[in-house]
UniProtKB/TrEMBL annotation:
This is Carboxymuconolactone decarboxylase family protein. Residues 33-110 form the Carboxymuconolactone decarboxylase-like domain. Pfam families: CMD. It comes from the Bacteria. It comes from Nocardia yunnanensis. GO terms for molecular function: peroxiredoxin activity.
Length: 124
């Protein structure tokens, strides 16, 4: 944590979360897990210098794919599209690339998430 006042840290975290996900999120005061997520993960870690938001998103998509967490992958793929960080072709290439490192079955889950997310986007 930084030496900021909690409200400054919270506001910085909420601002970064909104930037990462592409929509505003509420401040859920009193929820310890949410508070640590906002105050540490987003206020501090996502705001560190050295990597762009896109860089962090690519790393996160790789990590959650390796874990087989398709629910979180869907959130991240949607956010990457909303924010213009990755396009359809790049997302498809990610699943092909990761298949060689995390295994075909695991990357197939990501490919399904990408297809589902792109289809939803086309329907809008």
């Amino acid at each position: 944590m930084t030496d900021d006042q909690p409200s400054d840290t919270r506001q910085r975290g909420l601002k970064k979360m909104s930037e990462v996900y592409g929509f505003d999120l509420p401040d859920l005061e009193g929820d310890p897990f949410y508070e640590v997520t906002v105050d540490h993960l987003f206020a501090d870690i996502w705001n560190r210098p050295g990597l762009s938001l896109r860089d962090r998103r690519l790393l996160l998509i790789g990590a959650i794919t390796a874990q087989g967490n398709s629910e979180i992958a869907e959130i991240q793929v949607g956010a990457a599209l909303r924010n213009g960080e990755l396009d359809a072709e790049q997302l498809r290439e990610i699943s092909v690339f990761l298949a060689h490192y995390v295994g075909w079955p695991t990357a197939t889950k990501l490919d399904g998430v990408i297809r589902k997310t792109l289809a939803k986007k086309q329907q809008k």
